[in-house]
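To: structure desk
From: M.T.
Subject: fold request, one chain
Message: Could you run this one when you get a chance? Sequence is below, nothing fancy, just the single chain.
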Amino acid sequence: MCLIYLVIVRRFGFLMENQKEWLNVEQYQLKTEVLIPKFQQWIMKMLETKMLESVSMVMIYTYSLFILFDLTVSDSLDIDPNLLNQIDAVFLTFFFIEIVLKTFASNGMFLTDFFNFFDAAIVITSEVFNILGITAKGLGVLRLIRVVVLTIRRITGNTSKLRH
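Reply: Done. Structure tokens follow.
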């Protein structure tokens, strides 16, 4: 609770530094109306930093190597499938959170781009299947197509707002 207070209330300047009394209801309603757009702008700026974009691209390419390994070599080696599922879950959770934040920060405009919608559909479907414990090798191929599309968009410079 203190973290929420420090991040949201103090960061976006809704309470004066020395103010110790509770806000009345009218002031609180006015201030919460302004809170969400400022929070969205802050998330948008954070997501568009070069460092976070670089981390995202490294995660995507690492995940593609993991998917290639899983689709080709993992069956011939004696590797615990639960370990592979746990690694997959970590990557998918990262991508799911990234898509949720991008959608929230852009008021849903992130999903109006076809490739972003395609990307979100693959990640969300994979996450749901992973939660349900369903293993679908076909989704691995779609995830690789996702990497190819992201790479082509990056090379050609045809990127949308909040690109990967």
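Reply (cont.): The helical segments are 2-10, 25-47, 50-72, 81-105, 114-132, 137-156. Let me know if you need anything else for the meeting.
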